[in-house]
């Protein structure tokens, strides 16, 4: 799988790597499918993790190991959406806002997880080239995927917070394609956030007895 880490082409003086480009394209597809609340969101997310695992395996064991966790969460997300998608009228999941308890739990998990993972990365330097930002991105991604699996609107906010650190870090480490697609990512996140927010309000609105459907 060495070809995944080879150069695909050069754009504006930046060297675009096959694995970076493929992973980001699959990431864009995943976000678009998530916006549409499609069950295919999770197989595509799993495929993205598999591609990056193949790219990192053998020389960046820490990065490869992180993709295993991402793929495991993708399987959980598929199971969760498969189980709950028929509760709405359109056969898809019904978005909702998290409760304050759920929000507090996710913030606490993100904070504690980031510290724990960063300390692990510092103890084993081969796992990461930049422990604290890398830990923040990794844990934030897992929290965002968990919130998405639960159908929480907050997952869009979590992705924005991850991207604020992830995009500059990718540029600094030579993964330029991540920066080039940031505008598209941002647009998808904002549109998806608006759509899920409106759907969550519609789902929460009580239907009056005798009112027309």
Automatic annotation (TrEMBL):
Keyword vocabulary terms for this entry: Cell membrane, Membrane, Transmembrane, Transmembrane helix, Transport
Compartments, record wording: Cell membrane
Transmembrane feature ranges: 12-33, 64-81, 104-124, 136-162, 174-193
InterPro entries, sorted: NMN_transpt_PnuC
Topology versus the membrane: Multi-pass membrane protein
Family listed: Belongs to the nicotinamide ribonucleoside (NR) uptake permease (TC 4.B.1) family.
Name the UniProt record assigns to this protein: Nicotinamide riboside transporter PnuC
Organism of this sequence: Streptomyces nogalater
